[in-house]
Amino acid sequence: MATITKRGDSYRIKVSCGYDVNGKQVIQSRTWRIPENMTERQIKKELDRQVVLFEEECKRGQITAAIKFETFADQWFDEYAILNLRKSTYTLLKSLTKRVYPAIGHLRIDKITSRDIQRFVNDLLTNGRNKQSGKPLARKTVLLHLSFISNIFRYAIKMGMLVDNPASRVTVAKQEKKEKQIYTIEEMKQLFKCLENAPLKYRVFVTLAVYSGYRRGEMLGLEWKDIDWDNGVISVRRTSNYTKLYGMFTDTTKTKKSQRSTKYPAVVINLLRELKAEQDKQREILGDKWVESDRLFVTDDGTPLFVNNPYKWLQKFCKDNNLRFCDVHSYRHFHASALIFAGVDPVTVSADLGHSAVSTTTSVYCHLFQEAQARTSSVISQVLDFGSDSQNEMKPSA
């Protein structure tokens, strides 16, 4: 609300424009001089109009704290992100600054427009490249950059520094979706046949990955106390991750719904018993040199297995056995596809995979649900084909 002070032949209008990055209230002022030959009534009417105009300018963010995007984003990381986000998420967002800061980091937050952000997004789609593979950036990666920028503006609004989020009006052009690499049943049978001669640790890892559909971090975060041996139930309670910033660390699950308990068949539980016995024997041999972590998947001295070890081992294993290698996450896709084609409903599939919402499951596996639905439609058509010989045989005799 504006404060008005009369000063001779002029009025001073003060408006609060929120708070700066240090929490100090930002006050903007404007002086309106009374034109000659104005009546008292005209002065009051014009003064009210000037106050409204000035307040609107402040609301539109035309008058606000003068701070560059990079400076404020760094404060967002310190004040909000590091306290509220998972370590893996924090590290991921930090990596996005390598592209965001050179593009808009030097601009004042109150001067950045939707067009500025749209140009940046369009450039990522057309010219952005993955540093490791050299391939164009995926749309998902571009959306992550836009989401990060939007988070910064939302925080500025929350702090009373802005009233508008220019990132909210930016669009990311759709790209043709690539089909997920999923093993066929025959390929999976061949894989399991070859695994018979593989080290027990990795034989258990692949078997559990296929039967459970767990994420890599969930697999590596499993501990022996998570297994209910009597009932054959395994519970996911944590993840194991790695970033350059934090190194190896234990983290919470991706979402609350990722914490789940599932019953598994004897083939899985018996393999786990073998792995437990093997570890106990190795612990006894090493004695004090054994690193106690309680993890299922460890190195020879008990240290938790590094996150990239399964990928590297499986890649070499598939090459040596002339098998198609997708990646570790493809076992999760195979698990999901097996459930979908078996007729399991989306809600159950979503809960099994630990997705935060059913919509995530139906979106990720949209084409599989559609294909399964098409098969269902074919069956229904056959059942309702009353003119066929098979249907005539089903009719009761007179």
Describe the structure.
The chain has 398 residues and is mainly α. It is built from 15 helices and 8 strands. The chain has helices at residues 40-59, 69-84, 87-105, 114-127, 139-158, 185-195, 200-212, 216-220, 266-286, 309-320, 330-341, 346-353, 358-364, 366-383, 389-394, and strands at 3-7, 10-19, 25-33, 227-228, 233-235, 239-243, 247-251, 261-263. A 3-stranded antiparallel beta sheet has the order 1-2-3, covered by helices on one side. The chain has a 3-stranded antiparallel beta sheet with strand order 4-5-8, with no helix packed on it. It has a two-stranded antiparallel ribbon with strand order 6-7. Strand 6 (239-243) and strand 7 form a beta hairpin. Helix 3 packs across helix 5 (139-158), helix 7 packs antiparallel against helix 9 and helix 12 crosses helix 13. The longest helix has 21 residues, at 266-286. The relative contact order is 0.07.
